[in-house]
Amino acid sequence: MSPVHVRAEPGDFAENVLMPGDPRRAKYIAENFFEEAKLVTEERGMLGYTGTYKGNPVSVQTTGMGCPSAAIITEELVRLGAKNLLRVGTCGGYHPEMELGDLVIATAATAQDGTVSSITQGIPYAPAAHFDLVHAAYHAAQRIAPDHTRYVGPIVSSDLFYDPEEDPQELWNSLGVLAVEMEAAVIFTLAAMHGVKAGCLLTVSDTIAAAGVERIEDSSLKNAVDSMMELALETLDALN
Ligand code: HPA
Predict the structure, then answer these.
(1) Would you put residue 55 in left (φ > 0), alpha (ψ -120 to 50) or beta?
(2) 3-state DSSP call for residue 226?
(3) % residues pLDDT > 70 (the chain)
(4) Do 40 and 13 touch, CB atoms closer than 8 A?
(5) Comparing C-alpha atoms, which of 70, 53, 221, 52 is closest to residue 61?
(6) Active-site annotation holder among 163, 206, 226, 237
(7) Domains and their CATH numbers in the chain
(8) How far apart are CA 115 and CA 72, in angstroms?
(9) For the chain, is the Cβ count within 10 Å smaller at the N or the C terminus?
(10) How does pLDDT run across 182-218, given as a tens digit for each residue?
């Protein structure tokens, strides 16, 4: 039976799935990076497509914003047969040397959110990316984008884009956390619970410092995201 939100049937999705937050980015990925892309779900505007990359099946599915939405999508993708989930998104950079457009390969995601603690019933838990995806992403980045500045390490998944904390960079940077986004922790958690693999690649779209927040320009964001998509597809391809 088709899941409630990702309205599709088993077989409509590939085992390898890219997971952007934004439906327009899902469409852009399918139309520009897949061969023979086909729309497989559009329920609630959460667009999902399946096609091929270098001849191998691959899908892209919108998660929406925040862990509650990403949790629904992740659960349903796993029910539909997905095995390798790769979030592709943007983040706010906390590392003081980070520049707009830099790449982050997340190894772990602190769950500063309500969804993961609802799932774990509050027990201490460390959502982690699957080693195979971190390994594949790291080596693909070395191979195809050696000059693109990249950071590999922990991030935090927050419920808040507009954080009232006075100096979140000081707090998270002092803990070695590279960047903030809003979905990875629950994707990692649910993947681990269901015995599938998850990873996360991020483009730094904002740098967050006590002096203020800087936001990337649209054209630079497009170039950085294009390069991240190629890396994401090569990462999933390495798992075939
Ligand atoms: N906060 C949370 N998520 C984000 C940010 C941010 O500053 N930038 C991009 N995703």
Answers:
(1) left
(2) helix
(3) 100
(4) yes
(5) 70
(6) 206
(7) 16-237 (3.40.50.1580)
(8) 11
(9) N
(10) 999 999 999 999 999 999 999 999 999 998 999 999 9
CA distance 72 to 76: 6
The rounded distance, in Å, linking the Cα atoms of 82 and 59 is 9
Query: How many angstroms from the chain centroid is the CA of residue 201?
Result: 6
Pair of tokens at residue 82: 């997905």
Place of tokens 């410092």: 209
pLDDT, tens digit (0-9, with 9 covering 90-100), for 101-151: 999 999 999 999 999 999 999 999 999 999 999 999 999 999 999 999 999
* Nearest in space to 190 (alpha carbons), one of 87, 119, 114, 110: 119
Bridge partners of residue 105, in order along the sequence: 152, 201
Q: Give dist(CA 21, CA 66) in Å, integer.
A: 8
Distance in Å, CA 12 to ligand 1 centroid: 31
Q: What gap in Å lies between CA 127 and CA 108, rounded to an integer?
A: 6
How far, in Å, are 89, 96, 214 from residue 45 at the CA level?
18, 37, 30
pTM of the model: 0.98
The Cα-based distances of 144 to 125, 140, 174, 226 in angstroms read: 34, 6, 32, 13
102 carries an active-site annotation? no
Instruction: Give the residue whose CA is nearest to atom 1 of ligand 1.
Output: 161
